[in-house]
Amino acid sequence: QAVWSGVHEGERFSIECTVTAAMDKDNPDHSAYAIMDASSATYMKSTGKLLIEPGAYVKMSGHIGIDEYNWQHAFIDSVEILGKGDAPKPLPITAAQLSDASLDSRLVSMSGIVSDIVTDEIDPRWKFVLFRSTSGPFVAAVSAEKEPLERLVGAEISVTGVVNILPYVGRRSFMIPQLL
């Protein structure tokens, strides 16, 4: 967690961790990963395109920098694969649990009925899937520019993704690397 809150642009880091999810797969310029180690979990972008499978135990080195939206991120500059295991199993949670800070960047699964699909106005590669569930509504950000998600409206589905803090509003959201 010190990497993420480590704070100063330009600082370097090195961490051994397990990749829990590969995200932003459709982006031709970079990759993004949810990772965890013994102390916590976080989300990182790469400075170039990387291909790392969930479950890989890796040593990541990189720097703290500012992305295209002026948000501070930990950027991966290099990766050394140290081992391979099974990807961590997602933790089943409810919409009410999304506000729990201990779930930040953790791989989770949620269920609900899809009530609407909205395309992101800033980056149309992302869509927001609005769900209704017994514990309340929730929204999932989905990197799915090629998938016809509208067919899911009205369906009850389970999704796996990562709990993430939205840097520009400081609220937690649910990000789905892909529909599973």
Account of the 3D structure:
2% of the residues lie in helices and 50% in strands. By secondary structure, the protein is mainly β. It contains 1 helix and 11 strands; from the N terminus they run αβββββββββββ.
Looking across the biggest beta sheet, what order are the strands in?
A: 1-2-3-5-4
Helix content: under 10%
Largest sheet: 5 strands, mixed, barrel
**Overall residue-averaged pLDDT value:** 77
Structural class: mainly beta
Rg over CA atoms? 16 Å
The DSSP helix count reads 1
What global shape is seen? globular
Give the helices and strands as they follow along the chain.
HEEEEEEEEEEE
Distance between the termini: 27 Å
Strand content: over 45%
- Annotation, overall tally of beta strands: 11
Helix-strand layout with pairing:
Elements: H1 2-5, E1 12-23, E2 32-36, E3 41-46, E4 56-66, E5 72-84, E6 91-92, E7 107-119, E8 126-132, E9 138-143, E10 156-165, E11 172-176
Parallel strand pairs: 3-5, 6-7, 9-11
Antiparallel strand pairs: 1-2, 1-4, 2-3, 4-5, 7-8, 7-10, 8-9, 10-11
Sum this structure up briefly.
With 180 residues, the chain is an all-beta fold. The chain contains one helix and eleven strands; from the N terminus they run αβββββββββββ.
Characteristics of this structure?
five-stranded mixed beta barrel, 180 residues, globular, five-stranded mixed β-barrel, 1 helix, mainly beta, 11 strands
